[in-house]
Amino acid sequence: CMIVPFIFVLRRNLEETQEFNARRHRPSMREVFGTLLQNWGVVVAGMMLVAMTTTSFYLITVYAPTFGKTVLHLSTADSLLVTLCVGVSNFVWLPIGGALSDRIGRRPLL
Question: What is the value of pTM for the model shown?
Answer without folding.
Answer: 0.54
